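Throughout our pipeline, every protein is held as a single compact record rather than as scattered files. Such a record has a labelled line for the sequence and another for the backbone structure tokens. This encoding replaces a full spatial description with a residue-level series of whole-number codes. For reference, a complete record is included directly beneath this paragraph.
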Amino acid sequence: MDATHSPSSDLPLTPLFLWPGGWLMVMPAIDNQPHQHVAASLLVGVHQPIRVTVDGRPRQERVVLVPPDMPQSLNSRGPVAVIHLDPDEPAWRALARLGGLDEKQQRWCVEQIAALVQTGSEARARQFLHGLRRLAEPLPLDPRIADACGLMRAGEMAPSMDALAEHANLSASRFRHLFREQLGVSLKRYQLHLKCQRALALWRSGMNFTELAVAAGFYDQPHLNRTLRAMFDSLPSRYARGLPVQVVHLKE
């Protein structure tokens, strides 16, 4: 567990629960513009329904599930739980098997988030994640693609397309097609997404963002900024100024 807190701030720390396949954070309010995550988004209004526009279609519900790489915007004047699930994360693949959450499953999500907000405990966050994974048998993932995802997560530098294709014993074009077919996103966007995940893991309040960009594998800070704006409609400085964060690495 890593505490990240600006010494001059009197605001309470907000947990950012992070694991290799995603992250979970409860934010006091959100109002953002259309953007496109590589990860799936599970959005839960803590006290009331939230307004979400998914691929141009507005929705106002308590629990909203957005598939990977789908344009979305979120407006919530009250607290909202944001759960990002990578395309290869078993929790997302279980939800994809279901095709959505029924009324009972939505109530369960709300209850779990309410308990997490009350305690802020790592155990509650882990319980919620494991519960998501058990909602259904996850959609199978081609072992060659699962192996490639593991290789990319394990290394600080992203393997090239040719190296990944050779490891999978496939041509580059066939590997590229299979990757998108299995995960619903391109290899390039997935690799950028992993860099963003690495930046979250390295982020400390008050950190020099140029150093963060280089440490996470971006060319420079502008490259990090452009990627975060496209994927999250925000820069880390936006949250660092007003939302001191405690990064909690979940033990799975």
Notes: Residues 2-87+89-140+193-249 form a domain with the Jelly Rolls fold (CATH 2.60.120.10). The first strand starts at residue 2 and ends at 3. Confidence is low (pLDDT under 50) at residues 1-11.
